[in-house]
Amino acid sequence: MAQNSNEQTGKAQIAQTAQATPTEYARRLAAARARIAAADLDGLLISSQYNRRYLTGFTPTDHDITESAGLALVTPHTFALLTSTFALNGIEHEIAPSGVTALLTDTKLITQVLVEALKADGAVKRLGFEQDRMAYGTWEQFRKALDDANTGVELVPTDDLIVHVRASKDDAEIAVMRRAAAIANDAFALLLNDLHVGMTERQIAATLERHMIDLGADEPSFPTIVACGKGGALPHWVPSDRAAQAGEPILIDFGCRVDGYCSDLTRTICIGEPDAKLVEIYSIVRRAQDAAVEALQSGVRRGRDVDGAARKVIADAGYGEEFMHGLGHGVGLAVHELPAAGWLRINTPEMDERLSKVEQIGADNVVTNEPGIYITGWGGVRLEDMLLVHADGVELFTDRNPEQIVSVPVR
Q: Which residue(s) pair with 130 in the sheet?
């Protein structure tokens, strides 16, 4: 889709569709409270910026685990956002639909604000905290403050509980994710007109990112990966000054963020005619994608089984060792979230239990389907599409990776 005079109108529509309603926020909060109770906790202190935004609507981001714009506190009786006027100023309207209460930290330490909130609640003894999202020094400050105030509250480390709730997307989330996927899809179509022999990986990445911004994206959802030729053998290659050559695989992994929500796509193309090996590898990966879609369409909902359907195609073609990552992952406020579609890398009861907790694919999950083959000294082919899972099937968010590799004319 080319840029047009309706761009500003489109951005306004994005903002409207992305704003969850009070009903949707109430559903999210109720589901979060159920997860917290199931974990045998009286409440949860939320430091993940994604979980905080999901529940409260508060959009500021954190640049580091030691730099926080605020914390959310959820108990059966309390729903609060601990933050400063500095962070909240001008965006108070963002949190209004969620009904969260702002507890300001302007003249008090955040530890004191938490202590006062818990004392006012009066029913919290076991307070969970997101162990992977809180620095040890921060935890120690909260622990000491709670002990010094004789609150009787125990800080309990937890896995990310809210990410399980976030896996199921509501109407507001689906609407804005469709837009993020469409922008990435259309930006790539524009990129094909720009590609030429001699264009560097950095130039390709920058051009694609510029197209996404011009079409209405807020920013890339992650640093764009462009790998020409041999660099494609590394799944997370960092773009360099290597120039694209005719006939070689060009792997491009990209996406954009719109109103906080991500898209994530991968295309493998070439300039000029692909050689026989590239045609072969591309065909295998495309058939692996087909197998995963067919598994989901037929009702397979365990991530490892969907992964297995695709992995079998690649292994049967003799490239099992060259498919080194899981088939896919959930997408939402974070570019990588639940559910996980992977395989049991280490076959132990502990690893099996860990995978079982994160691999169930449910209705209204948005997942990627991204098999790949990576050959040292040659390059790689990865194809990635975004799928919205329904109770009775799946829906593609973007144009499908074509059956035959796209060949851009030599320019």
A: 158
CA distance linking residue 8 with residue 203, whole number of Å: 27
Query: Nearest-CA neighbor of 290 among 314, 268, 274?
Result: 314
Cβ-proximal residues to 97 (8 Å cutoff; 6+ apart), any chain:
19, 20, 21, 22, 25, 57
Is the full-model pTM beyond 0.90?
yes
**Rounded CA separation 327/304 (Å):** 9
In this structure, the strands spanning 406-408 and 265-271 are: parallel
The secondary structure of residue 97, as a DSSP letter, is G
Instruction: Tell me which DSSP letter residue 69 carries.
Output: S
What pLDDT digit, counting tens, does each position of 279-324 carry?
999 999 999 999 999 999 999 999 999 999 999 999 999 999 999 9
112-165 residue pLDDT tens = 999 999 999 999 999 999 999 999 999 999 999 999 999 999 999 999 999 999
Q: How far apart are CA 238 and CA 222, in angstroms?
A: 12
Question: Given its phi and psi angles, is residue 237 left (phi above 0), alpha (psi -120 to 50 degrees) or beta?
Answer: beta
User: What would the DSSP string read from start to end of 324-336?
Assistant: -S-SEEE-SSSSS
Shortest CA distance to 114 belongs to which of 136, 157, 92, 81?
81
Nearest CA to 280 out of 322, 335, 227, 309 is that of: 322
What is the per-residue pLDDT for 131?
A: 97
Half-sphere exposure of 69 (CA within 13 A, CB side): 20
Distances in Å between the alpha carbon of 322 and those of 18, 20, 237, 328, 383? 39, 42, 16, 16, 14
Bridge partners (DSSP) listed for residue 45: 73, 129
Cis peptide before 339, with omega less than 30 degrees from 0? yes
**Tens digit of pLDDT for each residue in 214-251?**
999 999 999 999 999 999 999 999 999 999 999 999 99
How far apart CA 224 and CA 184 sit, in angstroms, is 11
Give how far Cα 285 sits from Cα of 36, 44, 177, 301, 381, Å: 41, 43, 25, 21, 7
Q: How far apart are CA 6 and CA 3, in angstroms?
A: 8
